[in-house]
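seq:
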Amino acid sequence: MSIFLDFDGTITAQDTISHLADFALGVRAEEGQDLKQQWAQVVKAYVDDHGAHVAAYRPQPGGRSLPEHEIEFLRDLKTVETRSLGRIHRCALFRGIDPDAFREVGRGLVREGKVRLRDGFARFVRERRGEGWRVWVLSVNWSSAFIAGACGELEGVQVIANDIREDGSIGGPKVLNGDGTGEQRIMTNSRDKLDAMEAVIKAEGLSAKPSVYFGDSTTDLECLLAADLGFVISDKEDSPLLETLSRIGKEVPHVRDLNQGTAGKLAWTSNYEDIPGDMFVLS
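struct:
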């Protein structure tokens, strides 16, 4: 019995990567370095690269009507993400910042209300843990320590995400890299997340048990489709992920509209309070 949750936009109400960057910019400023312009260039280069790739990709969205079409498109974005990670390393924004510092920043941002966790998240996790579910956070975020801090380091919840290394580069999670002797694989796209989820399920002997996945973006699409039950987290019924799922033929009713005929597939909600607890009680 396994539950996997994305972090940015799924556990939190908004993306947190900008908070990571702002913290690091502050650290550099205290050292007398102003990297704001360099970081802005890194961000712009990513946006431009991503936009150009999406515009050039064929088929365009209207021609991608099946899950396999969209999955191929999402996997093809790996090159864009890899180039961006190289720019981040060369910028040296994160160089020398200790994981404990990122963990404390995560705690502080939630405590100060600058990062908001979605309503009912902590209670939902505690209740599921009490029922015997195993819970993991699975994220393409750059810092597992930041995630752990922001989540309040809930008992029994394991974080699988990337980490910021001493040299300022981004390293991938161990579950994708084995003993670390081969080429480093960084978790950046839907395939990486699916491979990580499946590796955990296999390693933990949970392959024959129910799996549930929570996500808010197309990076979560493969995991949502692979899990026995998938929850799309969205503040509105026409989010990019929900529109994508509709385009590839997947019905996603609101969780309040789930019934015996739709249970076990996909649903959407904006919070964890609307999810019926009895959906997780196994006979």
